[in-house]
Amino acid sequence: MTTFLIGFMGSGKTTIAKLLAEDFIDMDDVIVKRIGMPISTFFAEVGEDAFREIESQVLEELSQNEGVIATGGGIVMSEDNRRILGNADAEIIYLKSDFDTLYQRISADTTNVRPLFIDKSREELQEIFETRAPLYEAIATQIITISGRTPEEIIKEIRR
Ligand SMILES: Nc1ncnc2c1ncn2[C@@H]1O[C@H](COP(=O)(O)OP(=O)(O)OP(=O)(O)O)[C@@H](O)[C@H]1O
Ligand SMILES: O=C(O)C1=C[C@@H](O)[C@@H](O)[C@H](O)C1
Ligand SMILES: [Mg+2]
């Protein structure tokens, strides 16, 4: 069985995946290895479109895998990606949150500076969030509200 974690930047996909399975796969890490540079550098030097193509390719490959997979926050933007996720015999867990919580976390996370955080204003990022939110909801098989809850509380609910 495959478990995909989906959700906006900062929703805790990587954090929760790590707690669910030691040998989890983080799509962003797979992509960083493949492109040989940080995602923010790739966005600046090659562009977001090229990133999205690689992201789709990686998703296609990983959809054959077993185990826990943390996806990139933008995975739901492509119809192809949504089809791959929908066709995979997989659990798709949406880590749902309000925008303010996410923005606070993204701003505070100095170890992982997201390219969209650098490039966009708060208002632009909120617009992206509002476009994506219904897409995450639509493909999820389980929706977990994460605001105000610890990672331990969240994995307890996922396992229940
Ligand atoms: N339940 C939680 N409560 C408080 N802080 C959390 C929680 N889950 C994650 N965090 C913190 O929020 C930040 C973002 O978490 P994480 O990197 O796991 O998100 P992500 O969904 O993988 O983001 P991205 O899509 O950018 O990869 C980190 O600093 C992490 O420590
Ligand atoms: O939300 C997004 O569009 C992104 C989220 C990250 O996981 C990375 O995949 C990248 O920074 C793009
Ligand atoms: Mg992550």
UniProtKB/TrEMBL annotation:
<feature type="binding site">
    <location>
        <position position="28"/>
    </location>
    <ligand>
        <name>substrate</name>
    </ligand>
</feature>
<dbReference type="GO" id="GO:0008652">
    <property type="term" value="P:amino acid biosynthetic process"/>
</dbReference>
<dbReference type="InterPro" id="IPR031322">
    <property type="entry name" value="Shikimate/glucono_kinase"/>
</dbReference>
<comment type="function">
    <text>Catalyzes the specific phosphorylation of the 3-hydroxyl group of shikimic acid using ATP as a cosubstrate.</text>
</comment>
<feature type="binding site">
    <location>
        <position position="14"/>
    </location>
    <ligand>
        <name>Mg(2+)</name>
    </ligand>
</feature>
<keyword id="KW-0460">Magnesium</keyword>
<dbReference type="GO" id="GO:0005524">
    <property type="term" value="F:ATP binding"/>
</dbReference>
<keyword id="KW-0418">Kinase</keyword>
<dbReference type="GO" id="GO:0009423">
    <property type="term" value="P:chorismate biosynthetic process"/>
</dbReference>
<feature type="binding site">
    <location>
        <position position="52"/>
    </location>
    <ligand>
        <name>substrate</name>
    </ligand>
</feature>
<comment type="similarity">
    <text>Belongs to the shikimate kinase family.</text>
</comment>
<dbReference type="GO" id="GO:0000287">
    <property type="term" value="F:magnesium ion binding"/>
</dbReference>
<dbReference type="Pfam" id="PF01202">
    <property type="entry name" value="SKI"/>
</dbReference>
<feature type="binding site">
    <location>
        <position position="73"/>
    </location>
    <ligand>
        <name>substrate</name>
    </ligand>
</feature>
<keyword id="KW-0028">Amino-acid biosynthesis</keyword>
<feature type="binding site">
    <location>
        <position position="114"/>
    </location>
    <ligand>
        <name>ATP</name>
    </ligand>
</feature>
<dbReference type="GO" id="GO:0009073">
    <property type="term" value="P:aromatic amino acid family biosynthetic process"/>
</dbReference>
<keyword id="KW-0963">Cytoplasm</keyword>
<keyword id="KW-0067">ATP-binding</keyword>
<dbReference type="InterPro" id="IPR027417">
    <property type="entry name" value="P-loop_NTPase"/>
</dbReference>
<feature type="binding site">
    <location>
        <begin position="10"/>
        <end position="15"/>
    </location>
    <ligand>
        <name>ATP</name>
    </ligand>
</feature>
<keyword id="KW-0808">Transferase</keyword>
<comment type="subunit">
    <text>Monomer.</text>
</comment>
<dbReference type="GO" id="GO:0004765">
    <property type="term" value="F:shikimate kinase activity"/>
</dbReference>
<dbReference type="InterPro" id="IPR000623">
    <property type="entry name" value="Shikimate_kinase/TSH1"/>
</dbReference>
<keyword id="KW-0057">Aromatic amino acid biosynthesis</keyword>
<comment type="pathway">
    <text>Metabolic intermediate biosynthesis; chorismate biosynthesis; chorismate from D-erythrose 4-phosphate and phosphoenolpyruvate: step 5/7.</text>
</comment>
<dbReference type="GO" id="GO:0005829">
    <property type="term" value="C:cytosol"/>
</dbReference>
<keyword id="KW-0547">Nucleotide-binding</keyword>
<feature type="binding site">
    <location>
        <position position="149"/>
    </location>
    <ligand>
        <name>ATP</name>
    </ligand>
</feature>
<protein>
    <recommendedName>
        <fullName>Shikimate kinase</fullName>
        <ecNumber>2.7.1.71</ecNumber>
    </recommendedName>
</protein>
<keyword id="KW-0479">Metal-binding</keyword>
<feature type="binding site">
    <location>
        <position position="132"/>
    </location>
    <ligand>
        <name>substrate</name>
    </ligand>
</feature>
<dbReference type="InterPro" id="IPR023000">
    <property type="entry name" value="Shikimate_kinase_CS"/>
</dbReference>
